[in-house]
Design brief:
Blueprint: H1 15-24, E1 30-32, E2 38-40, H2 55-58, E3 66-68, H3 72-81, E4 85-92, E5 96-103, E6 107-114
Parallel strand pairs: 3-6
Antiparallel strand pairs: 1-2, 4-5, 5-6
Amino acid sequence: MAIIGTHMLLYSSQADALRVMLRDAFGFKSLDAGGGWLIFALPPSELGVHPAESPTYESGVRHQVTFMCDDIRATIAELRMRGVQIDGKPEDEGYGVTVMMTLPGGVQVMLYEPRHAMAITPSNTNAG
């Protein structure tokens, strides 16, 4: 058996607008799988497993999509210029700095500048 990658799904009431944002604002390359159904190439990913005894889990969150960056303030400025809604101000969580983004259709994802060792290296993080 060989796991060759991960495939994430975002469900949105504004799927076309979200696809445009991922392509244009985030710069993710894509291919058309047929009928305008875009599948996006993403930067390398990591998977963390957190214990259920946490405020996040207790709030109902079971899975989370997080886009990592190396300079959260610069990334926020650039994404805002490209029309991405940033919710609130970056928060220092100790392990890193985070802020939530609301994408078309009310899809919430986290923007995250980690301060811990990463399983991926900066040299292999470019999806575009």
